[in-house]
Amino acid sequence: MTPAGTQPDVVGSPSRGIAACAVCGHARNVREFLHLSSCSVDRCDACGFVFLGGTRSAASERVLYEDTDHFDGGYMEKLDIDRIVAEQRESVDEILRRVGGRLADLPADTPILDVGCARGHFLAALAGGVGSRSLVGLDVSSAMVARGRSEFGLDLRAGAVEDADLPKAHFGLITMFDVFEHVADPRATLAKLFASLRPGGFLVLEVPSETTVFRVLARWGFRVTGGRVRGPLEQLYHRAHLSYFTKQSLARLIQSVGGERIAATTKEAHVTRFGLRHFSPSKRVMIRAVCALDRLLGTQAKLLVAFQRRAED
């Protein structure tokens, strides 16, 4: 029994106007998964894709971020960006090797696009480490793009990926860190990026993983308390993240737009790997324990995925 005034963690809500699954393309297997004070969350039982309920648009998402600088008073201010960028380069190289590529093996003039480039730190690291390339960054935040242009002299462009005029069959590598969960239409966005890959090109993206120990514990705590303990869930499911992927649902979406040679792995989140000192001692103990269990089970907080466009396309 659910106490009066609370919602169960998994309910059916066909009368609410459930949206179609962005992966499967239909709504018949979609049900309300969570009902929180700040949002409702839906889940497709056919593919496992989890997404924020309600309507959305690229324009409304753009407004949330176009004047934001995560380095000035934002969450990135507390983290060591150099360590994060070094880890990102290692991650890209690791996942590319699983699909038959390496950063060092890309020709020096290979066009590379980083979607959600922020101030361009990742592209600056590529420029300094692997030679002169045709590097392009795209970010919805005009503030971060302007700062990055001044600091690094890179070709950084302000705007949302949905609005960008991307050349067809052009880029040899596209990267996207912690961006895909924010886009209003993941299928359309991924299809657009895929079309911009040259034949044989690679796309690497990183998103929060829906399959983690912490998420299981948070949902369990919510359920057994009749919805009274909801703080952990509200840190995981919120207005800023529109999509929540498993390896399976993300692979299915990639296949639907034509991606091949898909490789996926999990990794620890930057906020715990590089920012643990900002938590209280008691929380550090809990975070270390959960992260250790996630490493053991292969269910760490981030999904890192790479795929390739067929060379003869």
Characterize this entry briefly.
By secondary structure, the chain is of the alpha/beta class.
The CATH homologous superfamily of the largest domain is named Vaccinia Virus protein VP39
Task: Give the termini distance in whole angstroms.
Answer: 56 Å
The largest sheet has its strands arranged as 6-5-4-7-8-11-10
Helix proportion range = 25-40%
Order of helices and strands: EEEHHEHEHEEHEHHEHEHHE
Radius of gyration: 20 Å
The number of distinct β-strands equals 11
Kindly state the mean pLDDT as a whole number? 87
CATH topology of the largest domain: Rossmann fold
Please give the domain count: 2
- What coarse outline follows from CA principal-axis ratios? globular
Low-confidence stretches: 1-16
> Which CATH class of the largest domain applies here?
Alpha Beta
Percent of sequence in beta strands: 15-25%
Number of helices: 10
CATH architecture of the largest domain: 3-Layer(aba) Sandwich
Q: Which structural class best describes the helix and strand composition?
A: alpha/beta
Taking the sheet with the most strands, its summary is: 7 strands, mixed
Folded structure, characterized:
The protein has 313 residues and is α/β, with parallel strands linked by helices. It has 2 domains: 1-55 and 211-244, no CATH class; 64-209 and 249-308, Rossmann fold, CATH 3.40.50. The chain is globular. The strands form 2 sheets. Strands 6-5-4-7-8-11-10 form a 7-stranded mixed sheet, sandwiched between helices. The termini are far apart. It has 10 helices and 11 strands.
